[in-house]
Known about the structure:
Oligomer: single chain
Structural class: alpha+beta
Radius of gyration: 49 Å
Number of helices: 33
Amino acid sequence: MDCYTANWNPLGDSAFYRKYELYSMDWDLKEELRDCLVAAAPYGGPIALLRNPWRKEKAASVRPVLDIYSASGMPLASLLWKSGPVVSLGWSAEEELLCVQEDGAVLVYGLHGDFRRHFSMGNEVLQNRVLDARIFHTEFGSGVAILTGAHRFTLSANVGDLKLRRMPEVPGLQSAPSCWTALCQDRVAHILLAVGPDLYLLDHAACSAVTPPGLAPGVSSFLQMAVSFTYRHLALFTDTGYIWMGTASLKEKLCEFNCNIRAPPKQMVWCSRPRSKERAVVVAWERRLMVVGDASESIQFVLDEDSYLVPELDGVRIFSRSTHEFLHEVPAASEEIFKIASMAPGALLLEAQKEYEKESQKADEYLREIQELGQLTQAVQQCIEAAGHEHQPDMQKSLLRAASFGKCFLDRFPPNSFVHMCQDLRVLNAVRDYHIGIPLTYSQYKQLTIQVLLDRLVLRRLYPLAIQICEYLRLPEVQGVSRILAHWACYKVQQKDVSDEDVARAINQKLGDTPGVSYSDIAARAYGCGRTELAIKLLEYEPRSGEQVPLLLKMKRSKLALSKAIESGDTDLVFTVLLHLKNELNRGDFFMTLRNQPMALSLYRQFCKHQELETLKDLYNQDDNHQELGSFHIRASYAAEERIEGRVAALQTAADAFYKAKNEFAAKATEDQMRLLRLQRRLEDELGGQFLDLSLHDTVTTLILGGHNKRAEQLARDFRIPDKRLWWLKLTALADLEDWEELEKFSKSKKSPIGYLPFVEICMKQHNKYEAKKYASRVGPEQKVKALLLVGDVAQAADVAIEHRNEAELSLVLSHCTGATDGATADKIQRARAQAQKK
Length: 839
């Protein structure tokens, strides 16, 4: 253990700091870091170097080179810079490289040097040029702050949703501030700058002078300032060699340290871990690195070569031409276990496990000591936690073996923490590998989450590793393997040196019917890359027509989209394509397309019936569909035409169409309607009243009700209304008028073709029994009983039924016998039945 703590450095009495190597860099830099613009992304992210920047004197013919490396120095991309002079580089939270140019343009590149987009910081920045820039991170995303040549600040808190803010002017500012930074307080971005001995805080409304509490006297200038990773703390380096540390709100002082060095540092960053009360700042000069905090002494390291500091959530990464190291505060669990002469339960458990492997009885002694103190559960937890913070796999295994050993002597220790730590460390060790180059710590991994880590592996095109991690952690397919395979397929379609058939086949063989994978999204990416035929081939594998059709329309493959929509059976989808086709094609081509698709034609006709009647007529004309054309003109004659002449003309057109369709019945019926319309108009002119649009029967009835019986009879003869129907119409009309005298004359005019039972029924319907009895006597024998029952003469109905000897009539009469009044009649019927049975 003494050897293990050899690289521990105490900072005061409460904390130790250690620096260990992450990678031995093999990136073959030809220039010093000081001669390059450098940007390194947090969470073990990539490193960008812009070689030969414009500030260095170089031949005009030499173009700068932008190189992107992994954290282990593995090259990811290299490209000649062909745009304008760059002032600053920085990485966004999505690991996109932001290159801020002197003219205020910000160019955005992907991890592999692919150009994504660009945006401008405004006309004022363009006119005054950029002096300096900062890339910062907020809870909304990644922001850019600009200092212009006019000594004004412009910023955007989120480059994904660009909203530029011009900060207030600093009074009396005639030159660039000695140092400045971006702060994030209360969900708002601010600018803090130093002008001589004064500090100013800029927000969206005002410029405020601020004073750090407890600052040592004699300060005439601030040379450097640094904000912590979480934007909660601030450090200021003064020209007197003092480093002031406090809250970012400048309301509370944490500590102050005199480093006795007045030269301005190259970099100053915070170094602290989550949930630690210790706060420290790392300051770097050319060949010296100093760690200072709330202690009288500092930790100092000698830098053998030019280095660059990258602040992290729980420490600082330090890389140079040859090495990449990590400096951080030793976690509490590791300190408890490994510090010299530690009697912490975790330390005793680790010793017990080592003695057990040696088959020594000391293992039992250590174990008994822990158990007697009741700290075995705590010891196991300490070993598990410490294993997570170790970088070397051997030490991780040693601590996990100790935890596993201790678990054997506990009855109810939950295994989740042990199992999850083993899984997490296996994932971390995989991504820390030199060829992967993502040196995440356990704290960073938990803050980043597994989903973001998988996204970053996908960005690096490390699809096999990402899939292995998903399978190992048993993530749901939609969140894991399916999503990664979809990203792989989107990358595959960009390989233009492979034929469309081979790419489509390879994607289908790999993806198959994997749930959560959308072939339409992959096809959209292929179309975006200019590979339309590949996109169509990929859409053949998409089972959802609702996803196929919109992309086919976008690709201007409307006829294919129509076929797919029809195959789906989704009428809404078919209508969508039809309306798109209608706007895209000329009228003739559109109709010809419909002609080849009967289902689409039928649906479009339904649409036209409600929305576009003229188009419907054109469709019928083109198809020579005279039957439907005739029906169309009949509907049109009633829907659109108000004048009788126009309606008759429309009906005549309909009749002609029916004749062409060889439908003589419809043609004759239409001609009869025309005659009826003309007659109705004449009746209105001669008699007054409302006749137009009545049916033939209603017209006859109206004439009878108006007392125009002769005209009604003439109309019946003209339209060949059968006598039975005419008698029914006249009978009903006269009864409605209650013209009983005329009704009686009508009944005697000749023998009724409908008999006289209807007269009885109609009179009883009008509650006129007296008139009904007149006609009951005239009813024929076969309906006599029914007529007598209608007028209420049950006794006579019984006599007639007995005379007819009809069992059905007898039963009918018997059913109408009620109570004592018809008792004699019922007995009479029963006796007649009995006599009939004897015979």
